[in-house]
Amino acid sequence: MLTVDFDYLPLAPGDRLLDLGCGEGRHALTAYLQAGVEVYGVDLSAEDLGTASSRIDDMADYQPQGSVQFLRGNALQLPFADATFDRVICSEVLEHIPDYLAVLAEIDRVLKPGGKLCVSVPRAWPEYVCWRLSWDYHNTPGGHIRIFNGTHLRREIERLGLDHYHSHGAHALHVPYWWLKCLFWGQDPEPWLIQQYHRLLVWDLLEAPRLTRTLDRLLNPWMGKSIVQYYDKPMTPHGECRL
């Protein structure tokens, strides 16, 4: 299930990509399929990194043309030199981190001039409903500690000197599922309705039927669970003159 649309974050042979907070590797492993792309997935969770690494062999049937490795690291102090990456993905990460501005500054440090950044966070109003339905949804270890305003986040990233060039929503059909999860949080076994909705989402993911894909696309601009933003890093910092 991809949140990033690689049509807006194009990859080319020779590109080096960082998937920061890669989790189980969904975006890193997708980028790994591209010819000549060098992918690094970084996360704090050793368990998630183990799952991501175990999936490398599973990608063989898709004939990956790049390279990928998964590393344990802290987003506040990345183990890379300045201007290392042509592309950076930070998907569904910032809502977990107290000092998210420091993470954005670290991303800017390792992103090359002329590079591109994709950031995604939960959309504010569906997230707010989740918080109202369940305190434990965001008050568990590793949970969401803030609700982002997309306009405010864009302003913070542009303050670093990056230029916004596209935004979209993603995963609108997942919003009711999480509302149901929050409404019945902690119930074991899960209610029948949640189980059936999960089956619908899995079917949609595996089969991509026209009906649900169309519905998701129509709802994403205002109800997509995630807001996804794309940025360019200028070759010359804003305020400097080109000679």
Task: Please provide a brief summary of the model.
The chain is an alpha/beta fold. It has helices spanning 26-31, 46-54, 100-110, 124-133, 135-138, 150-159, 174-183, 192-207, 210-223; strands at 16-20, 38-43, 67-72, 85-91, 111-122, 163-170, 226-232.
Descriptive report:
This protein is of the alpha/beta class and 243 residues long. The protein has helices spanning 26-31, 46-54, 100-110, 124-133, 135-138, 150-159, 174-183, 192-207, 210-223, and strands at 16-20, 38-43, 67-72, 85-91, 111-122, 163-170, 226-232. The longest helix is centred in the C-terminal third of the chain and has 16 residues, at 192-207.
Total helices: the number is 9
Task: Give the overall shape.
Answer: globular
Q: Distance N terminus to C terminus?
A: 45 Å
Strand residue percentage: 15-25%
What is the helical fraction, as a range of percent? Answer: 25-40%
Q: What value does the Rg take, in angstroms? A: 18 Å
- Unreliable spans: none
Arrangement of strands in the largest sheet: 3-2-1-4-5-7-6
Mean pLDDT: 94
Biggest sheet features: 7 strands, mixed
